[in-house]
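I am still learning, so can you show me any protein sequence you like together with the matching structure tokens, please?
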Amino acid sequence: MTLSALPTPALLIEQSRLQANLTAMQAQADANDVALRPHTKTHKSVALANEQRNRGAEGLTVATVKEAETFIDAGFDDVRVAYPVTGRNKHERLRALRPDSKISFTVDTVAGADQASAVYAEADIPVDVLIEVDVGHGRCGVHWADDAAAVTLARRIASLPGLHLAGILTHAGQAYSGPSNGETEADALRRASRQERDRMLSVASALAETDGVDVTPDNFEISVGSTPSMAAFTNATRDGFRVTEIRPGNYVMHDAMQVALGAATLGDCALTVRTTVVSTQQKPDGTAHAFVDAGKKVFTTDTGYGTEGHGIALADAAQMRPHPNLHVDHLSEEHGWLTMTGDADLTVGDRLRIVPNHACVTVATQDTLHVVDGPSVVDRWSVDARGG
């Protein structure tokens, strides 16, 4: 099938860029002697997860029980839920998967650990649990500098039947904030990456000195990873501890946010949305607008450091050249609103491609990823793990 025959809106993945992204991250993991456990919430696709595994990925990261079920049903046998799982129903669903896969998940409160133990207490083999650590993002997790809280939670997990303290895990979401205090984008990525690594090593060292908790460099996992912090990641050792795995997700596709942060170039972005102009209007104030058939239900309203509007409209998709006079200014449910200036002159029926701000949310709204090689659609991958 050719692109011209493909109905819109459609998600396109440029095959060569995807392959380059997969290869580059696996090479970085290998160079730093860490396992790559990619986060599948970005693509939710069994076919793409197989591409990652074929290149050397060791296990998968997921965000939901539904994602865990989907990938284990597809034959993956080591799945980590990087989310503080709560609720008996979700734990029972995870427990039901254990005969077919090694399952692990995070907790960040004593209450969360107690809830988990209530489900796994009678298990023949304890389930692996990782303490979620906040290294600066300010979301979930024990604060990296609060040794007392980390020790309390570690001791609680170690004392509970059915649970095994396997390690610590974090997400350096602060890497998405961009530069501060005169930093360059590259400076900001290096700072966030060092913080993520060094603060996790500090927590591991503190736990190693805790009575009643079996924590040594040989038996303790240290899991880090966001795509922007991985752009500057180098491993290091403290008291014998090293980062053992990285969990980036967005790297498979990249998006306008990663470009703005300096974690990728526009030429690295494998995902675009192909869309059709459904209307053009000259407004009373003199501005010219084009409206396309992809709105909030395809793109995301997410914005971030350095982004302008809700995506990057391309003048040349083959060269990944942005159009200087097309701006994705606004979204309604079914419409993308573009302002046209200068030589931009879209007409009804024109097709164009737009790089979304946030690839992960865009993929989660759709059923199919169309793999393309230039003008040809060479494969179709289902988005298998939508829903909770």
In short: Residues 185-208 form the longest helix (24 residues).
